[in-house]
Amino acid sequence: MPLFVAQHRHPPEHCPASAEMGSLLLSRVSAATAARYGVAIEAEALIDGEHCLLLVVEAATRGAVERFLAFLPWPDGLQVRPACSAEEAVERGSCGPAHQPVPGAAP
After folding, report:
1. Fewest CB within 10 angstroms: 15, 21, 80, 98, which?
2. Which CATH code for domain 3-92?
3. Contact, 34 vs 95, CB < 8 A?
4. Which residues contact 8 (CB under 8 A, 6 or more apart)?
5. 5-27 pLDDT per residue, tens
6. pTM for the full predicted model
C-alpha cells in the first residue's frame, strides 16, 4: 500500500490537542478509526511548540488520508504528500518521485 506523510499546521487557538478538542484528537487519530477509512497509521507526532501534527500512514489513495483527517480544525493547514521508505528509495536508486517523467513525453 502506498505511503504518505500528512502534516497539519494550525494556529494555537485551533489546536486539536487543547482541553476542548484533545479527546476528539485521541479518538480520531487511532488505529481503529484510521482502519475505517482504509488508512494504517505507521507513526504520529506533534512537534513541541510548533502546532504541527505529523502522521506517517499507508493508504490506497491520498483522498483516503484526507477524508480520515477531515475532522481537524483549520483545513487549509493539511498537506498530504506521497512518500517512501528508505529501503524503497534505495531500491529505485533515488528519493525523487516514484515515476520520473519521460524526456520529450507530453505531460
Report:
1. 98
2. 3.30.70
3. no
4. 16, 52, 53, 69, 72, 74, 77, 78, 79
5. 999 999 999 898 999 889 999 99
6. 0.85
